[in-house]
Amino acid sequence: MSDLTAELMDALGVEGFIALTEAHGGIRLYVPVEPHGSQLASDIGLDHAARLSKLFPGSYIRVPLAREVRAQHYRALGESNGKIARRLGLTETGVDKLFRRSPNTIGKPKKDPRQIEMF
User: How far, CA to CA in Å, does 88 sit from each of 26, 47, 84?
Assistant: First the structure.
């Protein structure tokens, strides 16, 4: 997880971070000094926009796509891999790969304790 992703998640919480990435993931975003009445406030809520304005007043930030974080969030909500794929703009195979390589994957195949480590 990048430093910016961690900082945004700390400031906005998971729900606010998901709202931000769904609305603006992958683009440079101007964070207004005053969030009241801004497009950002209508996109992610005034409270979250105010938190961003406090951290990055009058600056541009590169909003991460955060596909792994979002996929984990959607999986925790009980969504299927097909629905997650549509929400992330990936194929179902891409979602499968994303979960396999994610270090904290829900539903990751458990290692058999009887299996010895080969490599």
Answer: 12, 25, 6
Distance CA 67, CA 65 (A): 5
Please list the residues that pair with 30 across neighbouring strands.
60
Q: Closest Cα partner for 33 from 9, 13, 60, 6?
A: 60
Helices (H), the chain: 3-24, 39-44, 46-55, 67-76, 81-88, 92-101
| Local confidence band at 11 (pLDDT 50, 70, 90 cut-offs) | very high
Q: Which residue has the tokens 């961003």?
A: 52
Instruction: Give residue 106's Cα distance to chain centre.
Output: 16
